[in-house]
Design a protein that fits this description.
There is one protein chain. The chain is of the alpha/beta class. It is built from 7 helices and 12 strands. The strands form 4 sheets. Strands 2-3-5-4-6-7 form a 6-stranded mixed beta sheet. A two-stranded antiparallel ribbon has the order 1-10. A two-stranded parallel ribbon has the order 8-9. The longest helix is centred in the middle third of the chain and has 16 residues.
Length: 310
């Protein structure tokens, strides 16, 4: 269901490949993103920023990167969610020139303790079944669907990345929609290892620091190990404690030159369309039924296409 593009030696576990990427090196600013607000079907309102590719052509389908920020960027100012290069860099010319794409960056309001996913960050692995999707994250899903209806989005190349609180949300969305996202990039997050088998085929590149004092590194270690046991081939970069990264893995992650080409090298494969024919009743009526499964649980429907009577 996924077409995967591999990595070279730079993706080896524990290897940090960095190049200078200070904030001032980026040409994109928050003002290059359209500002908006969205209200979900359940009445939850969230602010968001949307980057539309330059020279957008509705005849072309574009990938989209969904970025999910951390706890410190919650609020309603509709700008803090793009304060770090890891989130805003996807709209930079250095990314957009080779890989034109939409970038959707919602802002979680500061109205709950744990934000996107209602589980304590210090516990790392948690029980997914005991954590319903939050109103804020549900709003994000509906917002993504809304953008896909408004613009020509390549639904085979929907990507999600997140850091810290957003790292939890990235894992959560992967587990909730295991056939939706073409690539997932969770940074210092955690998920439910019992659900790892369901996402074993999802291209994942996780980042974490061994000395993270906020989200224990076992959150990433355990998920990666569980995916590998299930037959998956996730990519994992762990920064050793000697680097002193702490809870800032998103900084070196954004500096990894292999990340961007890896993400855009991932795509879901189209799900086939089935034509089902059947003869019914004694009069030998002949029916054809159209069935399309898009991988998200939506079914195209049943349409009698032909009736032949003797």
């Amino acid at each position: 269901m996924f077409r995967k593009k591999g990595l070279g030696k730079c993706a080896a576990l524990g290897m940090a490949v960095l190049f200078p990427l200070p904030a001032e090196a980026l040409t994109v600013t928050v003002n290059d993103f359209q500002a908006g607000s969205f209200t979900s079907a359940g009445g939850q309102q969230i602010m968001y920023r949307l980057f539309v590719p330059k020279n957008y052509n509705p005849a072309t389908a574009y990938p989209i990167m969904l970025t999910l920020h951390g706890a410190g960027e919650r609020g309603t100012n509709n700008s803090s969610q793009l304060m770090y290069p890891f989130s805003i860099m996807w709209g930079d010319d250095s990314v957009q020139s080779p890989h034109p794409c939409f970038v959707l960056s919602p802002q979680c309001p500061n109205n709950s303790t744990y934000g996107w996913v209602n589980t304590p960050w210090g516990n790392a692995t948690y029980n997914y079944s005991a954590v319903p999707i939050s109103a804020d994250l549900q709003a994000v899903v509906e917002l993504l669907d809304s953008v896909s209806r408004q613009y020509r989005i390549d639904t085979l190349r929907e990507y999600v990345s997140g850091m810290s609180m957003g790292g939890y949300a990235s894992w959560y969305l992967a587990m909730r929609f295991p056939t939706r996202f073409a690539a997932v990039v969770p940074v210092c997050g955690a998920g439910d290892t019992a659900r790892a088998a369901s996402i074993r085929n999802v291209p994942v590149w996780a980042f974490h620091a061994a000395d993270d004092p906020t989200v224990p590194v076992r959150g990433s270690r355990d998920m990666i190990a569980a995916m590998q046991r299930a037959g998956g081939t996730p990519v994992y970069t762990e920064y050793p404690a000697s680097m002193g990264i702490g809870h800032s893995s998103w900084i070196p992650a954004a500096q990894n030159p292999a990340l961007v080409p890896w993400v855009f090298g991932q795509a879901r494969t189209p799900v086939p369309i089935f034509w089902i024919s059947s003869r019914t009743r004694r009069d030998l009526s002949f029916h054809q039924y159209f069935l399309r499964i898009d991988g998200l649980g939506r079914v195209g429907g049943e349409f009698p296409a032909l009736n032949i009577f003797p």
